[in-house]
User: What shape does this take?
Amino acid sequence: MTTERQLHFNLFLHDTGHHEASWRLPDADPRAHLDLDYHRRLARIAEDAKFDSLFLADGPALAGDVGRRPQGRIEPTVLLTALAATTSRIGLIATASTSYNEPFNLARRLSSVDWISDGRAGWNIVTTAGEAAARNFGLEDQPLHRARYERAAEFLEVATKLWDSWEDDAIVADKAAGVHTLAAKVHAIGHRGEHFRVAGPLNAPRSPQGYPLLVQAGSSEDGKEFAARWAEAIFTAQPTIEEAQDFYADIKRRVLAQGRDPEHVKVLPGLVPVIGETEAEARELDAELDRLITPEYARRQLAKTLKVDPETLAFDAPLPDDLPGEDAVEGSKSRYSLIVDLARRENLTVRELIGRLGGGRGHRTFTGTPVQIADTIQQWFENGAADGFNIMPAVLPSGLEVFVERVVPILQERGLFRTEYEGRTLREHYGLPRPVNQYTLASVQ
Amino acid sequence: MTTERQLHFNLFLHDTGHHEASWRLPDADPRAHLDLDYHRRLARIAEDAKFDSLFLADGPALAGDVGRRPQGRIEPTVLLTALAATTSRIGLIATASTSYNEPFNLARRLSSVDWISDGRAGWNIVTTAGEAAARNFGLEDQPLHRARYERAAEFLEVATKLWDSWEDDAIVADKAAGVHTLAAKVHAIGHRGEHFRVAGPLNAPRSPQGYPLLVQAGSSEDGKEFAARWAEAIFTAQPTIEEAQDFYADIKRRVLAQGRDPEHVKVLPGLVPVIGETEAEARELDAELDRLITPEYARRQLAKTLKVDPETLAFDAPLPDDLPGEDAVEGSKSRYSLIVDLARRENLTVRELIGRLGGGRGHRTFTGTPVQIADTIQQWFENGAADGFNIMPAVLPSGLEVFVERVVPILQERGLFRTEYEGRTLREHYGLPRPVNQYTLASVQ
Assistant: This one.
């Protein structure tokens, strides 16, 4: 049992890899995203390496061109439940939208995943940008950014009440008396708010973790405030250590201002490892992937994010000066700013920017040798930039394999990463407490 | 390969058994409903016996007293996905509500279960009676019976369009050209109806079965019309062979009137087997279970279904004459009539009625020896009353074990039930065709 501060690793599963052209590599299976055995293999590798968790992104709509890369994934709670059956320790974090779900249904489903996995469920809370999703749910356009976050906040209130609506000792199973569960320990929640009216209780006993680990990934002002109030782990895209340090300090400050313990919120920047035996080898892999990007698809996607006509983006010129600005964006504000800042800071042409985004979509790409990557991880971890990383291999499974075979052992030797799981639940892996039940608390007072 | 008409068996999973007092038996585990290993064991027994499918009921609210019996189950798509991982052939039928889900979310999730299980998903379509459920979704009371079925019909239109929105050959995976999927074979659905506006396409390729097997269980006039239009298998409660024959003929007639093939809709009455080596032994097991019913709970539940005050139901008197009548019921109309008809026909006291409902909730209880039960099954099957049965053991797992060890072999010897799976998908087990894709059809014409 170590008491030193330890790194946390989450594996961000993403088809054949996070690089958008990874499916075009000779060894890639372009139907991997629909293949349970493929995902089992990845989960096994990550669990053998003692990663904290697996994670799946999601949105209820197609994301742009279907020609560009594999689309149409298996819904995360379904895929992770299937993976729960063939793993025993690794956490399982599913993305689900507060804008396009009902709190009762989603709270109940996540509780079920926590039961099925014996305490390994996590929820990446998203508000879902984009009009494509909105139009699958009876709306003409997406709700405003602020409105989505207001709904999300009330959604979390409802969900946590529902998860607490059964006290942990409600089931008594008294066969002789014929009393299965004590009605006095199962509470209606009677929620009446601006967005939701939910009577409760949940139709499920409180799950092993109390409720799933709450994860959040938006880095806008609204997103950071929401994270400070609710998140226990934060996925974030930080291109440089300086920006990561600013973000880290800002989040921990906000968490403290909410009256929460900053150690109970783990900040995990995205990390796209591109690993070679030599730096040159790593760069060649990078270049090979970038050559496989179809520039027209990528430009169309970039234009959509920037809210401009694709024709206004010349491949060999920098971004135009007259972009609409973050305030005009009602989709993902933080993603917009990340991309524009990156292009301006490094004075990239559109073609160069596409290459950078194709690899890590704005996340930090670490191209180098195993030792160089381990050094960078340690540097970020020990200098207030990260509590761990969201590992996003450009190519799967090979990028994961080389990371766990070559980088993880270095970090273990340095005493920075576990060699065995010490806890049983996902929340225990991240060093987070099991939430106190608000109704038990209320009845004690 | 047999061409004879064959029985179909579905196992209705239900905690420690369908008898409401089954959890109070000495061997029962009162936490079985939360135990994945327990469900795996039941699934294994049913798959070894070559059952067509497993089935889970569901509703988004607690159903009455929590003291009475185990409540708060694992959500069916989650539990069945977990069971998909440890089975390979048996079908997996999840109940989900058209009143309290969005079509995009549910269509997508069921498609995912079909992918994960390699073509074994089924959907038991319910409109969800009761104000408890309504109050978890912002409503004060349940929508009217007719309105629920209108929404359900439009829900199915949307869902089937979404399932067809990717043609089966949309993915081309052309690495050289950099084209993963053909945009021309992925169709927006542009649905605009009274209840839903859904743009589509689904964010998932068409699943192995095209779409999940469609199952329905309501037996009201609205329910039967809905079933005739959409269902491929029907679960129904039929207390006598005569009533089952009438129902069977009525359904097949309605299916024909819809322009569908009556053989493509399988009628499966519920069957609660209580099996003994002798008739006396079977009756003793029945009686032991009924002694364990807590009459106050059961009377409260009965009063709720009948829309009367519990105090008006004297235990040792028949039902009062002045009941409100099916027309006044906006919940489950067919269940109301089933109970009242049963009590009147057999002139039961409230106490006797509670005993009958505690065992099979109005479904046909077969109490007897293995040969007697096999004879009855054969009689119903060969005389236009059933295409198979929804097996609802009063006690689990023991009631299932004795059914598969003692009754199934008799039916196999008589050539009425398969000894090996012949198909791969759930739809193949039931002898049903894979649905034609409406968009492929449209583009060919």
Summary: DSSP finds 15 helices and 13 strands in chain A. The longest strand of chain A covers residues 266-275. The mean pLDDT of chain A is 93. Chain A has one domain: 8-275+364-444.
